What we know:
Blueprint: E1 17-23, E2 29-33, E3 36-40, H1 42-54, H2 60-65, E4 74-80, H3 86-98, E5 104-106
Amino acid sequence: SMIDLPSVGRAAKAPDRVIQITIGKDEALSIKSLEQTTPVVLKDLVRAVKSAQTGAPKTAASSASGTADPSGNTAVVISADKSVRYESVVKVMDVLQRAGIQRVGLSVQMVNSPG
Length: 115
């Protein structure tokens, strides 16, 4: 089945925060939010992402109205080491989407290896 992903760049509004999930060479996961990187295992990933989303700094406007969805303007970007199998990336994305986490995108990093 095809996964239809909106690109983060095309979003109507820039996200207040980007949570970055990194999949390393050994498929070890880590989550980076507010410049802090924390290792995480797949079964805890959803909880970690959701807590990072709800920890987003409230703007005066959103806290005054009280109706803002805390996770509404947080983008989740997955960046994987180029040695990681595509299936592993898809599995991570699938876990997030099943959990109802919105705005998941893939960060394709072109790495120029020296030499």
